[in-house]
Amino acid sequence: MDQATTSSPSSPPPPLRPMQDKLDRHETHGQQSRSSHTLSPPIPDDDDDNEDAPTPPDNQQPLPLTMTTSVLLADLPRDATAALATAGTFPQEKVVVRFKPVGSAPSLAQELCKITATRKFEEVVRYLRRKLKCGDSESVFLYVNSAFAPSLDEVVGNLYQVCEYVWDVGSFGGLHG
After folding, report:
1. Which GO terms describe its molecular function (predicted)?
2. What is the CATH number of the domain that holds 119?
3. pTM value?
């Protein structure tokens, strides 16, 4: 069956065959069949000298934080509900919109108007159509900062934030806060 191997002192010993092979197979009447033997669970390591190892995260013990991290974490919302409650808010409740006519478009008597930041851009279009007394068949084209035409469902506060970023970079015009 197994041959005995001899090894010289300079060569490594042959690999050991796993015990599972010997336990799982046995010969019955010249045929090999699977046995119901299974390995016992592995023996846990008895490293009692490593008692200072960190505890698993299941204990929910607080981790030490740097001062900078603790200050940042103190300002974060406690849960997703609190974060979502402040997600749709804008720094200013109302936004001032300045209308500048281009080409042959008529000018308004009042160039500025205020609108709530949470309103949609379609309300700005509706307001302008009403002020210009446009008919249903007449088209009105509105551009923000003479650069782009937002969709009607865009929130005015978001457009203001885009303009505010452009103002910080150095361009002027469009929606004013």
Report:
1. Atg8-family ligase activity
2. 3.10.20.90
3. 0.47
